[in-house]
Amino acid sequence: MKILFAASEVYPLIKTGGLADVAGALPVALRKKGHDVKLIMPAYQGILEKVAPIQKSINLGNPFGVGDLLLLETHIPENDTPIWLLQCQALYERDDGPYVDNNGIDFEDNHIRFAALSWAAATLARHGHLMNWQADILHLNDWQTGFAAAYLESWKAEHIPVVTTVHNLRYNGSFDMNQFSSMQLSPDLLTMHGMEFYGRFSGLKAGLVYADAVTTVSPTYAKEILTPEYGDGLDGVLRSMKDKLVGILNGVDYDQWSPDKDTLITHNYGIKTLSQKQTNKLALLQENGLSEDLNQPVFGIVSRLTEQKGLDLVLQVMPSILEKGARLILLGSGDKYLENQYLELQKNYPTQVSVRIGYFEDYSHRLQAGIDALLIPSRFEPCGLTQLYALKYGTLPVVRQTGGLADTVFEEGEKSNGFVFQSANAESLQAAMERTIKCFHETHNWQEKQKNAMSYDYSWEAVTEQWTQLYESLIRP
Ligand code: ADP
Ligand code: GLC
Prior knowledge:
Belongs to the glycosyltransferase 1 family. Bacterial/plant glycogen synthase subfamily. By secondary structure, the chain is α/β, with parallel strands linked by helices. The protein has 17 helices and 18 strands. It has two domains: 265 residues, Rossmann fold (3-Layer(aba) Sandwich), CATH 3.40.50.2000; 185 residues, Rossmann fold. 37% of the residues lie in helices and 18% in strands. Strand 14, helix 11 and strand 15 form a beta-alpha-beta unit. It starts with a strand and ends with a helix. Adenosine-5'-diphosphate binds next to helix 1, strand 13, strand 14 and helix 12. The site of alpha-D-glucopyranose has 14 residues, from helix 1.
């Protein structure tokens, strides 16, 4: 099948979170199964230096009046995946993140920036002759590409099956109605059953209502988002389309994330050479100037710092956990208040707490290899990838039982691979961390859990069959 996969970030070209990991790996896994997959993403500043030389380019015109949209054909050198980069200087060549400026504020023309990406994806899906490649399926991801489904609807184009994957319902890409006129979309779409959303218009809702199938990234999150608690105002819409909604768990790219071949960690190790994990632990403690006692556990965090991730709860319990001799190493960035609170904690416990604010891919690997347990106390978590990486590194996740965390981490039973708590409050988290510390000191039990953790297979290969079946059901209903 020919699949056009549209996303606003793709690893290793650009990444702010799990979407990039998925867009960087699912197409590769599908290509291995014989599908013909092509990506489309904006040519943000610096991207052209990371891809192979441009093979072909075409001018798609100037539909938004902000400059010509050029489509550049190339591939990702690391894995040969074909990608079309959408170039438009006024929209994408900026010295900041893909969505926000250097102060963390959303760009005020984001509706146009991602309308253009969506418009280009829809145009290619509709007019395959432009690039000599006719897609069978258009696969959209999150609000940034959700508008593509609205363009196809607006153009009353010949039917092409559209799949929309929700990676995070919290970001609904909604904008003020007075910006709608610049979108080049038919106002007929602005109904309650269309893309209107509480008096605004929403890219995510467009992606949901005009798609043939909607997926989300874990079975549990697929159920949770039908409830007001997790639905972020879209639960009613989602309940009305229950039959076309399915949860398919994300996978891991084990070429990137395996301790036995990871070139970014200090010492490679595997299930039979687990003692080498201690060498990574020692190196990580030394790198951060922390107390080097290997007989006490080290907790870690690798995360965007947002309300979603529940990291305010960790701050509440940390003083009493640190008193027991544990340590904490955090890598993250986001909310300024949380960043400052963690820096304050580091100041108060200089030999036990290390905090690095920023985004460092290499360090995230050393951290996963060197810590004993990874904290993910999320209020909601569509899938979560860091717990899956942790498992492979024999690092035990401590998670709240929600979304993809509930589907992948288990405290009870023979195949137990981590620690799980129910309620999003400090008491429940603290109790789970205390169970973690207790287990850490029962060396045999801890090592059993580590071995279980490392044996789980959350590869993309394990789920590509589900993707194939879904695509096929849409092409040949
Ligand atoms: P989300 O997409 O909600 O941020 P995921 O767990 O799905 O959560 O994916 C997060 C991805 O981003 C993982 O690959 C994780 O290692 C990475 N990551 C998060 N924060 C940082 C950071 N500060 N530095 C490096 N990598 C990070
Ligand atoms: C989102 C979610 C995360 C998920 C990722 C990839 O950013 O917050 O849970 O793993 O997308 O699907």
